[in-house]
UniProtKB/TrEMBL annotation:
It holds the Pfam family SEO_N. It comes from the Eukaryota. InterPro entries: SEO_C (IPR027944), SEO_N (IPR027942), SEOA (IPR039299). Residues 441-671 form the Sieve element occlusion C-terminal domain. This is Protein SIEVE ELEMENT OCCLUSION B-like. Residues 1-278 form the Sieve element occlusion N-terminal domain. GO terms for biological process: phloem development.
């Protein structure tokens, strides 16, 4: 090693070793004893990249050096000298070049003679000049004894492959970006200390290969059957394979290190971009969705790929989700999207679906099929493929926008500024009325809202809305306990009849219990217990809107203590979180009473004691007053909210007693 390092004195000249190696590799791959050209043979042409003017200029500059080294190799190997001594002669001749240049020039020098040798062998059957040269070199004998020479040719090819592999690694080390990698980094420092050793063994292998080729000229049959040289070549190949394996591990670590630094840099760039004021949204959108692709978007309307330019200076809603969006969710979103478009030639905003996938799991055909099916059903823009989302963007979505499984709709104004961190909740609550989906619009809508049955039901059931507007008595009830449902509907109907107050009862199910709710509905229908919603989407949407009211109020910083609607919403969600049923009774928009199933049943069971109040007060106030004795200090309320609410720092208090609720983590798998 001291001898080798003593010869190393680079003068600063730069050679495009990657382009030169590409040419060398092409020669070595085509120069093979297994190919003999006939007049009918069709040969592939070399990639035009090596004919580029810069590459040609570089080749002109080092052509003489390659020729000189080739002659030195031929001369020294023909004399049968010591392989190490010959290798050191080459090191001295190449002292002014960098390590990677030493290797590639040596490989090029060998490729010239090796290529000429096999070019003659391959063409001797179709070219008179090649035939005469082949006779002088006795190449026909070699081709006639191909089977006998097979072990040596195989060993030669294996060694050449190993030489190329290690040379590529050395060039990869040299080409690592200095902005991210410095020689002081331990893995890089280790590689730099091993590169001279690798260069030595490659040049030593060049000498061994050249000696083999020279020894093939004028071979006798006895020499053809020898295996000593094949063993020597195999030994060198084994040594180089070990070096290659070591280099590949170091390169993998260094590329990972570079990737992490680039990832941090890209993430910080995104953070800065969103903190900066822009004249339009292009910088933001290109950083998010089109760093690799000129046509990153798929237009759901035209079914064509388009550029990010279609979003310039428009309100853009980024719909962020995984591939597990429910059919109900997508159906309602498409409906809201279509409502805002009605009667307008041009959309006042654009939606872009950003599909987030878990990169820890391989992308397979079933995921591809799911993604394509979902994208084809969406009328808005979609990212052409989930892989277009860079790791830094995924990190931004999770860390800054708190995406975690539950879909998000982040609204950007025409300048790319975030005007609502998640508009999905206001879309569920108010639909197209929430346009332009900003936090200011959300605040204004809440200011005009009061807790009433119309708001709770909204447009989910137009018939029920009609009853409310007519001032009828309407009872909504839920839960999944069939026994309680039978008892409650029977008792409520009896109270209605005895009080002579017409009453409409509608079953609204329970969140997250699709199949159990279906079974309850089947029983209600069969036994004619009450009205119900036939469409499962209506039941799903009722509960999603309630959860969205909670999220929206929390997003606005409202609490149970200070906000009446928040208190009512939390009460409804606690009803749903319990094991019992529950009921809400209302007359028009003026009067409303609600209670958990057991308390409501206890109250209805004592109807005889308070039925006299119905005439003077009305049914709803009479039930409200009758429930007062059943309100006890003992209770156990549960508030179950889907998704990660870790970003919500405020305490959640009980709507019944006002005390902070304990927080637990619930994992649920409901295989109905």
């Amino acid at each position: 090693m001291k001898q080798i390092l003593a010869t190393h004195s680079p003068d600063g000249r730069e050679i495009d070793t990657r382009s030169l190696l590409r040419l060398v590799e092409d020669i070595l791959q085509r120069a093979t004893p297994t190919v003999v050209v006939t007049p009918q043979t069709h040969l592939e042409l070399l990639d035009d990249g090596v004919h580029h003017i810069d590459v040609v200029g570089m080749l002109e500059a080092i052509a003489y050096t390659i020729h000189r080294i080739s002659c030195e190799i031929t001369c020294k190997c023909s004399g049968g000298g010591d392989a190490h001594a010959t290798t050191m002669v080459l090191f001295n001749s190449l002292s002014s070049y960098t390590w990677d240049a030493k290797v590639v020039i040596s490989m090029a020098a060998f490729a010239v003679s090796y290529g000429e040798f096999w070019l003659t062998a391959q063409l001797h059957t179709v070219n008179p000049l090649a035939k005469s040269v082949a006779l002088l070199k006795q190449l026909p004998d070699i081709l006639e004894n191909t089977d006998a020479l097979r072990p040596r040719f195989d060993a030669l090819n294996n060694l050449i492959k190993a030489m190329l592999d290690v040379t590529k690694c050395i060039i990869q080390f040299k080409d690592l970006p200095s902005d991210y990698i410095s020689p002081e980094i331990p893995d890089m420092a280790m590689a730099l200390t091993h590169i001279p050793t690798a260069v030595y063994w490659i040049i030593r292998s060049v000498v061994a290969c050249a000696s083999q080729m020279i020894s093939l000229i004028g071979l006798g049959h006895e020499y053809i059957t020898a295996t000593t040289e094949a063993w020597e070549l195999s030994s060198l190949a084994h040594k180089l394979r070990n070096i290659h394996e070591h280099f590949m591990k170091q390169l993998e670590l260094l590329y990972r290190y570079i990737g992490e630094k680039k990832h941090v840099e890209a993430f910080q760039n995104l953070v800065r971009l969103f903190e900066t004021v822009h004249i339009d949204n292009m910088k933001i959108l290109k950083a998010l969705i089109s760093s690799k692709d000129e046509l990153p978007l798929f237009d759901g309307a035209t079914k064509k790929r388009v550029s990010v330019e279609v979003l310039r200076r428009k309100i853009v809603i980024l719909f962020i989700s995984d591939l597990d969006i429910s059919a109900e969710e997508l159906f309602v979103l498409i409906q809201i999207y279509s409502d805002t478009q009605q009667g307008k030639n041009e959309r006042s905003y654009e939606v872009v679906w950003l599909p987030v996938t878990d990169r820890h799991f391989p992308w397979d055909s079933s995921k591809e099929e799911t993604f394509n099916r979902m994208a084809s059903t969406m009328p808005w823009y979609s990212l052409h493929h989930p892989s277009l989302l860079e790791p830094a963007v995924l990190r931004y979505l999770r860390e800054i926008w708190h995406f975690d499984k539950r879909p998000l709709m982040v609204v950007l104004d025409p300048q790319g500024k975030v005007v609502c961190p998640n508009a999905l909740h206001m879309m569920w609550i108010w639909g197209s009325l929430a346009f332009p989906f900003t936090s200011n619009r959300e605040e204004a809508l809440w200011k005009n809202e009061t807790w009433r049955l119309e708001f709770l039901v909204d447009e989910i059931d137009p018939v029920l809305l009609g009853w409310i507007q007519e001032g009828r008595h309407v009872c909504l009830y839920g839960g999944e306990d069939i026994a309680w449902i039978r008892q409650f509907t029977t008792a409520m109907r009896k109270v209605s009849q005895e009080a002579r107050v017409p009453l409409e009862m509608v079953y609204v199910g329970k969140s997250g219990s699709k199949d159990r709710v279906k079974r309850a509905i089947a029983t209600i229908e069969k036994e004619k217990l009450s009205g119900y919603w036939q469409d499962p989407v209506m039941v799903w949407f009722f509960w999603v809107r309630l959860e969205s009211m909670w999220h929206s109020k929390m997003q606005q910083g409202q609490t149970v203590e200070q906000d009446e609607i928040m208190r009512e919403v939390v009460t409804m969600l606690m009803f749903d979180g319990g094991d019992e049923g529950w009921a809400v009774l209302s007359r028009g928009s003026l009067e409303m009473v609600k209670a958990q199933g057991r308390k409501m049943m206890d109250c209805l069971a004592q109807f005889d004691s308070w039925k006299g109040n119905v005439e003077t007060e009305g049914l709803v106030p009479a039930i409200k007053n009758a429930l007062i004795p059943f309100k006890t200090a003992e209770h156990c309320n549960r508030l179950i909210l889907p998704g990660d609410i870790g970003q919500i720092k405020e305490q959640v208090v009980c709507a019944e007693c006002g005390r902070p609720m304990d927080k637990f983590v619930l994992y649920r798998c409901c295989n109905d």
